[in-house]
Amino acid sequence: TGMMSFSAMASLNGTYTINAGAAASSSNYKNFASAVGDMLSGTRTDGGTSNGAGITGAVTFNVANGFYTEQVLITSISGASSKNTITFQSASGDSTKVSLEFASSNSSTNNFTVGLSGAKFIRFKKISITRTGTSFYGSVIEIGSASNYNQFQSCRIFGSKTATYSTSQSVVMN
């Protein structure tokens, strides 16, 4: 008889933290990019241990107070469903204490702070999402390409400050 071998990679399930001030580990991510990268492809940019691509249950990221200067693109995550939601929320419950921000630019490419492209069942709770700067392209949230069932609850959303108005500077763009 032949022996069969299976390779299994874990995936996310349960509660994790995003805390830039703490060491990266299997349960703490230093930034949003590492948390999203782990769910999408099992890769991280912060040096922490990967949990593997996809989710097998509801996932919550409690985000520590602070400023997170980065652009976040979330695409389709394997395992996400109405029961297996993905939540990014302020650990303190105060949207003024957790800020995800990204500078406006002079390029229409990736014109967002948070982009959802094919993402489903993503929730942001009590987080400030901001586009800083005065450049022409300053959209804050871009929802597109079959993204459904996503929620922004009790979030503060701020656009960039410019002297002109354009759909390239939308707070939410679909």
Quick rundown:
With 174 residues, this protein is mainly β.
Order of strands in the sheet with the most strands?
A: 2-1-3-6-9-12
Class from secondary-structure proportions: mainly beta
Return residue spans where pLDDT drops below 50 for at least 5 consecutive residues.
none
Largest sheet report: 6 strands, parallel
| Gyration radius over CA | 17 Å
The overall pLDDT average reads 90
> Got a strand count?
14
End-to-end separation in angstroms reads 56 Å
| Number of separate helices | 1
Described by the principal axes of the CA atoms, the overall outline is globular
| Strand residue content | 35-45%
Q: What is the element string, with H for helices and E for strands?
A: EEHEEEEEEEEEEEE
How would you sum up this structure, described in words?
This protein has one helix at residues 32-41, and strands spanning 12-18, 28-29, 55-63, 66-69, 72-75, 86-90, 98-103, 114-117, 122-125, 128-132, 141-144, 151-153, 156-158, 172-173. With 174 residues, the protein is mainly beta. The longest helix has 10 residues, at 32-41.
